[in-house]
Amino acid sequence: MVHLSRWKVILLALSFAFGILFAAPNLLTADQRAALPGWLPKSGVNLGLDLQGGSYLLLEVDVAAMREARLNNLGEDARTVLGEAGIDADGVVRDGSGVTVTLADPAAMPAALEAMRALTTGGGAGTLADRTVQRQGEDRIRYAFTDAAMDSMASNAVTQSIEVVRRRIDSLGTREPSITRQGADRIVIQAPGESDPAALERIIGQTAQLTFQMVDVENPIEEALAGFPPPDSEIVPDANGTPYLVKKRVLVSGENLTRAEVTTDQNNQTAIGFRFDGAGARRFGEATAANIGRPFAIILDGVVISAPRINSAITGGSGIIEGSFSIQEAAEMVNLLNGGALPAPLQVEERRTVTAELGADAVAAGALSTAIGFVIILAFMLLSYGFLFGGISIIGLLLNGLLIIAAMSMTGAALTLPGIAGLVLTFAVAVDANVLIYERMRDEARAGRSVIASLDAGFNKAMGTIVDANLTTLVAALIMFIFGAGPVRGFAWTLTIGVFTSMLSAVLVAQVALAWWLKVAKPKKLPIAE
Fold first, then answer.
1. For the chain, which terminal residue's Cβ has fewer other Cβ atoms within 10 angstroms, N or C?
2. Whole-angstrom Cα distance, residue 18 to residue 34?
3. Which run of H or of E encompasses 59?
4. Burial of 494 by CB count in 10 Å (0-12 exposed, 13-18 middle, 19+ buried)?
5. How many CA atoms, within 13 angstroms, populate the side-chain half-sphere of residue 14?
6. HEC string of 156-172?
7. What is the arithmetic mean of pLDDT over 88-108?
8. What is the spatial distance between Cα 185 and Cα 196, in angstroms, rounded to a whole number?
9. How open is the CA angle 290-91-223, to the nearest 5 degrees?
């Protein structure tokens, strides 16, 4: 264990080189890092929300509203499919997880069943095996979500919302946002460096449900405004409050959108360009070809943003949305559309802003506590084991800290205030390994064994205890990382990195340094045994 092995020396040298190479960018300014050659690492440690300042949002996914919307869609799907098949329905009644359709003519039951069963085998979201069609009596058909689909709606909505929110925040350029799930239907967002929580909330909270629907020109809008809208149409206002009577059936939705971008129209005014996927392009082409000369509405989150007239079939799968957009409004809308639509509305339960000044105070306090902890450990080791053995421990601690900073810089991990606490704890765990080794050496030397035998026994007999202690710490850190959120995960991540680096630094540095001392000094007795 105390032989001066070449591979140990090389590994120790590589560890120092790795630590210096990846930790050094933290000493440079952002401009200096950007000027570095491409082959050199440029990333530094990202400061968390509590150290850098930023915005905190606690959001709740409105699962009830999502279920309501999807159940309403079931009714519209049933009406549309039966209407296309030429089958009249006396009524469509909602129930717990679906709708019940009553046919005007019971003789049309076979054709109605065939038409509606096509809904359970088509493509798109919410169609495959999550819906059932069942005959009830002579003239009724129940079209509903399966029990499994109803149970999974909430979980799937939260998972999808997290991904959509992540894409939207990334489009803002916010570095290292923390987006985690809390409980069954809540999402915690921490955006370091984002000083405008209102803008963040506006981008995150907008549902971005984009639909293309025909304007109803057969029925007078006055009757609808008086409270008597047709069963297959609804009133939708534009941004100025002007009402439109539009068909409830969605021709194409944002699910078929592959790309949106800011562009200009023929009058050189700001517009939004869009492109559909293959299925969306086909449906859009068929719908426009069948409705030439009629207007259709482009609706975003329940507001008509444009209602152009179809002059010819649009078969290319792309087009532009014209409107009175400013460049900023168009850019925000493009980010929303490219980020995808939220499956359910998000309600803000809590919002909090951490100022940069408070973050700077936390950094100063954390740095001070780390320095004090390091000085106390340094004094203890020097007083307990002298300049040789204590100094070796200090070198190991320096390498440990260097490797932790390097690892966090390389992985892009965010350092939080609890993470600094984890850093201090890591120093204590690292020096604990040296204490175990040295005390075993001291016991062996006092028992009359030679210097070489004492050194060798110190490493061999203490290693089991060191591994066991670090493994226990690692398990605890992993549990906190998996089940914790925000600062708890920051503490756990720093502690996890520290477990691995402390094993390397505390043991390897001591082995190489003491082997070199043994070879050069050829001591007759162990200094710490006195």
1. C
2. 20
3. strand 54-61
4. buried
5. 7
6. HHHHHHHHHHHHHHHHC
7. 86
8. 25
9. 65
